[in-house]
Amino acid sequence: MGDDPAVNGSHSTSYWFDACEDDRLVGIDFGSAADFDPSLLPAFDNGCDDGFLSEIDRILESINSEQNPAPPHPPPPPQPKIEDSKEEVAAAENSAVVNCTVNGKVESLDSSKRGNSVSKRDGSSLNGHWRNGKRMKEERGGRHNWRRFARDRGEDCGDRRRRDGDWGRKRERDGGGDRRESRGYWERDNKSGKVVFRVGSWESEYDREGKRAKQDSLERSRANSEKKAEEEEEEEERKEKPVEEQVRQYQLEVLEQAKRRNTIAFLETGAGKTLIAVLLIKSISEQLLKESRKMLAIFLVPKVPLVYQQAEVIRERTGYRVGHYCGEMGQDFWDARRWQREFESKQVLVMTAQILLNILRHSIIKMEAIHLLILDECHHAVKKHPYSLVMSEFYHTTSKDKRPAVFGMTASPVNLKGVSSQEDCAIKIRNLESKLDSIVCTVKDRKELEKHVPMPLEIVVQYDKAATLWSLHEKIKQMEVAVEEAALSSSRRSKWQFMGARDAGSRDELRLVYGVSERTESDGAANLIQKLRAINYALGELGQWCSYKVALSFLTALQNDERANYQLDVKFQESYLKKVVTLLQCQLSEGAAPTENDTNVADTCNGDSHSIEELEEGELPNSHAVSGGEHVDVIIGAAVADGKVTPKVQALIKILLKYQQTEDFRAIIFVERVVTALVLPKVFTELPSLSFIKCASLIGHNNNQEMRTCQMQDTIAKFRDGRVTLLVATSVAEEGLDIRQCNVVIRFDLAKTVLAYIQSRGRARKPGSDYILMLERGNLSHETFLRNARNSEETLRKEAIERTDLSHLKDTPRLTPVDILPGSMYQVESTGAVVSLNSAVGLIHFYCSQLPSDRYSILRPEFIMERHERPGGSTEYSCKLQLPCNAPFEKLEGPVCSSMRLAQQAVCLAACKKLHEMGAFTDMLLPDKGSGEEGEQVGPNDEGDPLPGTARHREFYPEGVAEVLQGEWILSGRDGCHDSQLFKLHIYAVNCVNVGTSKDPFLTQVSDFAVLFGNELDAEVLSMTMDLFVARTMITKASLVYRGQLEIKETQLLLLKSFHVRLMSIVLDVDVDPSTTPWDPAKGYLFVPLLAESCLHSAKEIDWTLIENIVKADAWMNPLQRARPDVHLGTNERTLGGDRREYGFGKLRHCMAVGQKAHPTYGIRGAVAEFDVVKASGLVPSRDTIGCTDDVYLTRGKLFMADSCMDVKDLVGKIVTAAHSGKRFYVDSIRFDMNAENSFPRKEGYLGPLEYSSYADYYRQKYGVELIYKKQPLIRGRGVSYCKNLLSPRFEHSEAREGESAENLDKTYYVFLPPELCLVHPLSGALVRGAQRLPSIMRRVESMLLAVQLKDTIKYPVPAAKILEALTAASCQETFCYERAELLGDAYLKWVVSRFLFLKYPQKHEGQLTRMRQQMVSNMVLYQYALNRGLQSYIQADRFAPSRWAAPGVLPVFDEDSKESESSIFDEESPVVETEVEKDFFDDFIDNIREDGEIEGDSSCYRVLSSKTLADVVEALIGVYYVEGGKNAANHLMKWIGIQVELDSQDIPSPKPYNIPESIMRSIDFDALEGALNIKFEDRGLLVEAITHASRPSSGVSCYQRLEFVGDAVLDHLITRHLFFTYTNLPPGRLTDLRAAAVNNENFARVAVKHKLHMHLRHGSSALEAQIRDFVKDVQEELLKPGFNSFGLGDCKAPKVLGDIVESIAGAIFLDSARDTSVVWKVFQPLLHPMVTPETLPMHPVRELQERCQQQAEGLEYKATRTGNIATVEVFIDGVQIGVAQNPQKKMAQKLAARNALVVLKEKEDASKRDTEKNGEKKNGVQMFTRQTLNDICLRRQWPMPQYRCVNEGGPAHAKRFVYAVRVNTSDRGWTDECVGDPMPSVKKAKDSAAVLLLELLNRCYPDG
Predict the structure, then answer these.
(1) Closest CA to 14 of 102, 74, 85, 71
(2) Which residues of 918-940 are buried (b: 16+ CB within 10 A; e: fewer)?
(3) Which end of the chain is more exposed for a tag (fewer CB within 10 A), N or C?
C-alpha cells in the first residue's frame, strides 16, 4: 500500500479522512488503489425497509446475501521488520492522529474524534501513506513538536473548528488545548477489570474491531470511485456539446414530424427515442413561454423502474422541474389540493399510466389542462390497458381543439405472437394509430441508424429435453387438489363464488388500480395453490434441487412473516409447504456422474452418499433418474443424471462459463416466471466454478412475490456500477431499462411475443454484445417462433414505410374505430368525476378496503353469479353484489349481461352510483373519510412550521389586565397640583399570618402594607388566601382585608405615588424617578406602609411620617443608593437582583428573539466598578480631610460610615450599600470583637497558600481601597436578595439533595464589612422585606380578578377560584393547575361529541365518525375557539418572575442596547471570598428551575403561549363547569365557546328497526348473556349487533363498530368521572395514570373473559378463535397468582376484539336505556370491579426503568431484532446489557425486557448496599469525590490542576456516551500518561471514571501517598 514497500511491509494500516473537511486537501492523491479486491464487497443492504413485510423481501435478501457474503476478516498484517521496535509499529497501527504537510503547513486530522468517517460528498476520498521511518522520527520528536503542531493547527484550522463547532468547544471546555502526541494511554480492560497500558491513541472498542474491515471496504470504494470518475469524465466530454449538437439526423426528422402532428416514433431500442421526447418537451415549453403560459407535460411509462429512469433523464437534459409518481408513493390517498400543488410546481410529470387514469377519473385533472402527453412503449395501448383507457375514456371524449399533443414511442407497434401477413400487420398498426390519434413514423434510411445502434450477435444454443420426475409431480398435484377442497369447505361458498371474481378477471385490475391485496382462508388456499404450481413448474423446468430451494424459500418467508402469529391463512399454508420441503429435499454437487476412472474422489463420495440417501427415502427410483444432457460432463453432470438439475440449467451454466475471462462482463438472463428468477441465483452460488459472477434477481410489481421500487432501483444501480454483474430478470427488464454496460443477453425462456424478442435483444447495449437464445432440441414450436419473429420484424418495418392500402376494409370490425358505449359510465355533474364499467370493480374494492376493519376481517365485496340459459342456447349472466356489514347498504342486484365480466362491472357501476347518492363517496368519487373541507388543511405546511394546536406552535399574546383595575386617578399630578380635588379610593390591608416557625429573625421583622384601589374588589377576591413560601419551615398565608373608603388630596396622592415608586424601584431593581416615570391607567393601584397599631380611620392608618422621610431623603441623589448603579457608572452589572437563569436564559428560544441579545442584567456578584471610578465620580465623600482616630468614635458609640457618622444602635436593622461593590446588605449586628486588621479567613477546604493576610489587605488588593479606620468594628451583614416568586412551593425537593445536612440548608451566610465603605440606605430592612412579598400577592390578586371577569362574561355561577384553576398552567409551578380538570373535561367533551355524531349520522361508519369527532375536538379546533373567545388574555402560563412584572409606575427594564455579549458576562463572574458570599443560592436555584420548553416573552405586557395550552384551557373549563354545575353548566360553557352538540329530539333520526332472522336469535343464549350483565334488554337487536364481528357474514346484522364508537366514549367519561371524584387529592399525573390503567383495551378484554362475554362473540375467523383461546388460558393463569391484577399490564396481549365488545355492549345499553348514562354505570361498575386504585396501580416497566435511569443519569438504550416471528429486545444501561426478553410481539418483548432489567438492577443495588455496610463509608467516599480527591492531591503536592479532555462523544440523543481522559503534570516526573475512563452517560461521570484510573496510577507511583 505504501510509497515504499520495503519499508512499509505489504500492508500497513491505512488512514482515511474526510477530504471535504478542509478544502486545501482536495485533489491530493495519497496513493493508488492497486490492491482493490472486488470479492470483498459488502453484503447487499436493503436499506429502505419501511416496515412493509412481504415474502419476497426475505427471498431476495436470502439470494442476495448468499450471493454476496459479508467480507471475510482480512489477513493479519505481516510481521514488522526486526529493526522497528514493536512499540513503535503498534503506535503507527493504532494512532489516530495523522500529520500531512500541505503547502508547507502542518495539518492534523484527528480521526478518533471524527469516528473515522469518510465523506463521499464529491466522490473523492483520500488515503494517507508515509514511510514508517519518517513516522517514527516524528513520534520521537517529543513534546516540542506536539506543541508547535497544536499551535499551527490552531491557526490554520480555525474555519474547520468553527464548522465542527462541538469539537472546538469541547476542547476549550476541557482545557485540552495544549496536547502532546502521546505514546500510549491507560484504561480498564473489560475482561480482566485491571488497569492496562495501551500503545497509540484511544479508540472505542467498536472502532478497534471495525477499523480493519472498514479500511478494506474503503479501499474498494475508492477503486470504484476512481473508475466511476473516469466514466464520468467521458460522460462530461460527451455532455459538453449542447444536446442539439449530439442529435442525429434521423432523430431530427422524427422530431419535425412530432412538432407538426401527433406521432408514434417506431425506432429500435437504443435509437434514442427518449431524446426526441426531451427535445419535443423543450420545443413546446418554449412555444408556450412566448405566450406567457406554463407547460404541463405528462410522460407515461408502463413499468415502475422506468418512472425513475425517465424522470432522471428529463431532469438532466432539460433542467425543468420534474415530478415522478408511482403507486407505492401513496397517491391513491392524495386529495385534489395535494395534486394541485404538484401541477403548479412541476413542468413535467413522469408517472405510470394507471395513476393518470385514476386522477382523470376522479376529476383531479382534466385532459384540457395537459399540453403534451408522451406514451413510452405505446404498443401497450390495446384492450383494457391503462394507456388504452386513458385514450378512449378521456382523450377521445375531449373536443379536438382542447386535446393535448400526443407522442408515442415503441420498438414494435404490434404486441402479438407474430404477424401472419402484411395486411394483418397494417390493420394492427392502423388500430394503434387511431387509438393514439397519431401516425407511425420510422427511419427510411437504415444506414445512419445502424451506425449508432449496435446490433448484438444472435446465437442459438440448444439443450436436451428434461426427464420427467413423475412421482414427485403427482404428489404435488395431489396436494393441490387437497388444498382446493379444503379451501372450498372452509369458505362455505359455492365454487362459483370462490372462483367467480377471479374468472371475471377483476383481480389484476384490482391490484393494478388500487393496490388492494386480498387475504382470507380461501385466499390462503389460492395463494398456496399458486406456490405449489410454482414448485411444480420449477421441478419440471429446472430440476428437483431448484424446486426444493423454491419450496424452502416459500416456507422460510412464511415463517419469518410477522403476520404468522395471527394471519388466517399462514398456518394452513405452512403445514403443506413443510410436506413439500421434506418430499423434495436433496443436495447439489459439482462434477460429472461418477464413473470408474473418475479422478474427483471427493465428489464421487458426495455423489454416492446423496444418491444412497435418496434411494432410501424412495423419492428418486432409478427408472426416473434418466435424463437427456451430458452426464459425463464435468459441469454438474452428476446432478443432471440424478434429475436434480435439468439439461437446460446445465446448458446455461456452460454459457456463463464461456465468459469467465471476459473483461467487464455484464449480463441479463430473461426468464418467464418469477420463481425461475428467484432460484437461479441460488444455483450459481452453489457452484464454485461460477464464483466470478455476482448475481441478483429483478422482478416486477404485478407478481404475488412483489419487489418494492426501492429494491428494484437499488438492484439496477448495483448492476450499473458493477457491484452486480448478472441479473436474472422477468419481463420487467425487457422494456426501456437503459444499462449501457450490458454486453450479454440470454433468453433462458424463449420470448412469447415478437415484441419481447425485439425488446430483450435491445438490452444488449454495448457494441460487440451477444444475444443468446436457448432452444430445446427438436422442439418445433420454438423454431417456428424464432423464424416468425425474425420475419415479422422485417414486415413491420416495411409496413411502417410503405403503408398498405386498407380502404377496402373501411368500417369492417377488423378496423375498430374508438367508441364509447353509451350508459357505461356515471358522471358527477359538479366535478366531472367519472366511473366507468372499466373502473367500477376496482373502485368498489378500494371502497371496501377503506372501511374500518381489523386483521381478522378482510372486508371485500362478494359477487354471486347467476347463469340464465336463453332459448336458442345462448347464456347470459347476472351478478349479485354483497358489501361488508359496515357499508351503508348490503345487497344489490345487477342487470343481466352477455358475459360474467360485464355482469360484474355493471353491478359495481350501479353500486358506485348508489354509494355516491348516499354520501359514502365524495363528489370526486373517492371514499368519504368523514373529513370536511377544513380537514384537508391539517397537512403540515411546506415550511415544516409547527401546526396550530401543538405544543411547539407558539405565538405572542398581550397580557390581560382586569378592567376593575382601570383608573384615571393614577395619572393625577401631571399638570401641577390642585389640592381642591379629592380622590375617593378603597384601601385594602395585606393581612399576613405565619404558619410554622423559622430560626431566621428577619422573616418576622417585616413592615405592614396596604394597597389602594380606585374601585371596590369582588368579594371572592377577599375570601381568597394565598400561601407564600417564604422559608423552608414557614409559610405565610396572605389575604386582602377591606379597610374602607378613603378621601385624599392630590398632594397626598403625589406623595404616595413617589413613595410607591421609590420602594418598588429598589424591590424590583429598576432605576426610575418618581417625577418622570410613566403611569398606565389600565393598572391603577399603589402600595402604602401602615402604622403598627390599627386606627379606626382608614386614612390615619397610613404611616405618613415614614412616607415623607423616605420621599424627601437626600440619599436618592446618590446613584449608588438607587437601583442599578451600574447604569450610572457605565458598567453592565446588576447590584441587587436577578440571577443568570432568569435573565441570561429567559430570552425566547423560539425564533421570536432573532437578532436580540441576551438580557445582560443578571446578578453579577463582582464589583460594579473599580473603587477609584466610584471615588472619581464623587459618589463617596473624600475621607482624607478627617484626621481623628478610631477610638474617639468608639467611645461615643458612633461609627464612621462612607458619607456620615452613625449611632451604632440606629444602624442595626438598616440596609447599607457597599461603596466598593455597589451591593446592598441588611445589617445584622456590629462585631466589636473584629476589625479590619483581623486575619482573613481561608476558603472552606482550600489547602493552598494564603492569598490575603487581613481584611484591610483584601480590600487593598482586590479593590484598591486603603482603609483609614482599621480599628473600627466590622459590620456583620446579609445580602439583600432579589425579589422572589413566593407562589411556587420552592423547598419541596431540596431535602433530596445528596450530601446536604439540614443545618447546611438552613445555614445563613454573612459578610463582614468595614463601616467606612458603607452608605446607609433610606429604606429600612423591614420595609424592603415586607415589600418583597407584594409582587407575588398582587400577581395572584390580578389573576383572580381576571377569573372573576371571565366568570361574569360566561354568565354562569361558578366559583372564580375554580375558574382561576382552569386558567393556570402547570408551567406556573403554583399549588394548583388545570391538569386535573382538563382530564375530566377531555373525557366529557369526547363523550358529548361522540353522542351527538352517533345520533345525527346513522349512515356513517365508525371510521367516518372517528374522523369527524377528531375534527370537532382536536386541539387545533379548540385553539381556534379559545382565540375567538379571547381566552388568551386570561391564561396564566408562565412561572411568575418578579423582575419581569410591571408594577404601576415601575416597568421592567430590558437592556437591548447593551454592548456586552452573553458569554463575556458569564466569564467575568468572579468567585467571591467565602466571607462575602450571600448564600441564598440554594433558594435561587430552586426558585428558577424552569420547565423545559417554557418561554418568557421579552416584554412585560406580552407573553408567549403555545396553542396547545389554549386548547387545554378549553377542556379544563369544561371540566370545572361540569364539576361545579353538572351537565347543564358544562353544556352552557360549550355553547358559549362555540361547540355545538345540542340535538333537538325531532332532529334525531329514528333508529332503523332490526330485522334479524329467527335462526340468529335462536343461536344466541340471551339468558346467559343478560345474566352476566345483570340487565334485561328492551331491544335485543342492539345486543346482537354489539356481539357481531365484521368477519361474520352479514345476513342483516351490522357489526359492532358503531356501538363500539359510542360505548368507548361513554365508558371513558364514566370511569374518568368516577376516578376524579373518588381521588380528589391525587396529583394530575397519577390521575392520568389511573385513568390509563382503567380505560384500556387490555383491561376491558380481561373484564370480558372474567364475565365470559367472549363466549357470546359472533365472528367468522379461525385465527381469532385460536387467539381468544390462548388469551383465556393465559388470563386464567394470571388470575391464579394471589392478589394479582395487571390492569392491562399483564404479560399476555389481548385480541383487541375482546375489549371492543365490552365497549360495544356499553353502547348498546346506553341506547337501550333511552340514552341514560347512569344505567350504563349501574351495569358496568360491578363488571369493572375491582377498580384500579392508587395503591394497586401498576407502573409500566418501560416507564419505571426510564424514570429510574433519568434520576441516576444513566444512559438507557433498547435494541430490537427479529428472527422468524420472534422479536428479541435487549436493554442496555450505560452500554452494558442488563436485561433481555423474547416474544412474538415487539412491544411485549420490550416490556418483559424492562421488567427483567429492573429485577437485575434491584439485586445489584441490594448487593452494593450490603457491601457498603460491610466496608463502612470508605468505599462510598472514593466513589463520590474522585475528582475532588485528585484535586486535593494536586494542591497538596503543589502540582497544576489535572487536565481533562473529551476523547469521544457519541450515540443517539437518548443514550449519549462520553469518554474522558485525564493526566497530571507532576513536578518531579513530568506529565503522566493519559488515563481513559469508561463510556458514561454524563460528562461528570465520565471525568470521574477517568479520575479513578489516574488515582490508581498515582497510588502505584507514589505509594507513600
Answers:
(1) 74
(2) eebbbebbbbbbbbeeebeeeee
(3) C
DSSP-assigned letters across all residues of 515-553? -----SHHHHHHHHHHHHHHHHHHHHHT-HHHHHHHHHH
Contacts of 1162 (CB under 8 A, 6+ apart): 1134, 1138, 1139, 1140, 1141, 1142, 1143, 1144, 1465
The β-bridge relationship of strands 1857-1863 and 1843-1850 is: antiparallel
Cα–Cα distance measured from residue 696 to residue 502, given in angstroms and rounded to the nearest whole number? 32
The larger pLDDT score, comparing residue 1337 to residue 1466, is at 1337
Question: How crowded is residue 1586: how many other Cβ atoms within 10 Å of its Cβ?
Answer: 31
- CB of 318 closer than 8 Å to CB of 350: no
* C-alpha cell of residue 1746: 426510564
**Which tens digit of pLDDT belongs to each residue from 1321-1378?**
999 999 999 999 999 999 999 999 999 999 999 999 999 999 999 999 999 999 999 9
Which residues make Cβ contacts (< 8 Å) with residue 235, sequence separation at least 6? none
Quote the DSSP letter at residue 1277. E
Q: Which three cell numbers stand for residue 1300?
A: 446536604
- 204-218, 487-501, 1538-1552, 1725-1739, range with the lowest pLDDT: 487-501
The three three-digit cell numbers of residue 1186, written as one number: 478627617
520 closest CA partner among 563, 567, 559: 567
State the cell numbers at 91: 503506535
Contact 1856, 1880 (CB under 8 A): no
Distances (CA, A) of 887 to 515, 849, 1300, 1593: 20, 11, 68, 13
**In the chain, % of residues over pLDDT 90:** 22
Contact by Cβ (8 Å): 228, 252: no
What pLDDT shows up at residue 574?
Answer: 78
Q: Which residues pair with 373 in a beta bridge?
A: 298, 406
- Of 730-734, 805-809, 1080-1084, highest mean pLDDT: 1080-1084
Residue 1860 and residue 1883: Cα distance in Å, rounded? 8
Question: Phi and psi for 294 in degrees, rounded to 5?
Answer: -95, 140
Inter-residue contact 1473 to 1243 (CB < 8 Å): yes
User: Does position 1485 have pLDDT exceeding 70, yes or no?
Assistant: no
Q: Which pLDDT score is estimated for 1182?
A: 59
CA distances 808 to 434, 815, 819, 1265, Å, are 17, 11, 21, 123
What is the secondary structure of 1568-1620 as a DSSP string? HHHHHHT---S-HHHHHHHTB-TTS--TT---THHHHHHHHHHHHHHHHHHHH
The predicted structure's pLDDT at residue 1183: 54
Q: Between the ranges 475-479, 1501-1505, 1568-1572, 1818-1822, where is the mean pLDDT highest?
A: 1568-1572
Helix axes 55-67 and 674-686, enclosed angle (nearest 10): 30
Task: Give the type of residue at 1023.
Answer: S
What single DSSP character describes residue 1869?
Answer: T
Angle formed by the axes of helices 1662-1680 and 1696-1712, nearest 10°: 90
Q: Other C-beta atoms within 10 Å of 52: how many?
A: 10
* Closest to 1516 measured CA to CA, from 1347, 1356, 1367: 1367
Backbone angles phi, psi at 1158, to 5 degrees: -65, 155
Q: How far apart are CA 1638 and CA 1622, in angstroms?
A: 14
Backbone dihedral angles phi then psi of residue 1781, each to the nearest 5 degrees: -155, 155
Per the CB < 8 A criterion, the answer to whether 379 and 734 are in contact is no
Q: What's the start-to-end Cα distance of the chain, in Å?
A: 50
The amino acid that residue 55 corresponds to is E
Q: How far is C-alpha 1270 from the geometric centre of its chain's CA atoms?
A: 68
Instruction: For residue range 1021-1067, list pLDDT tens digits in order.
Output: 999 999 999 988 899 999 999 999 999 998 999 999 999 999 999 99
Would the pLDDT of 807 be above 60?
yes
Closest CA to 1845 of 1872, 1875, 1865, 1870: 1875
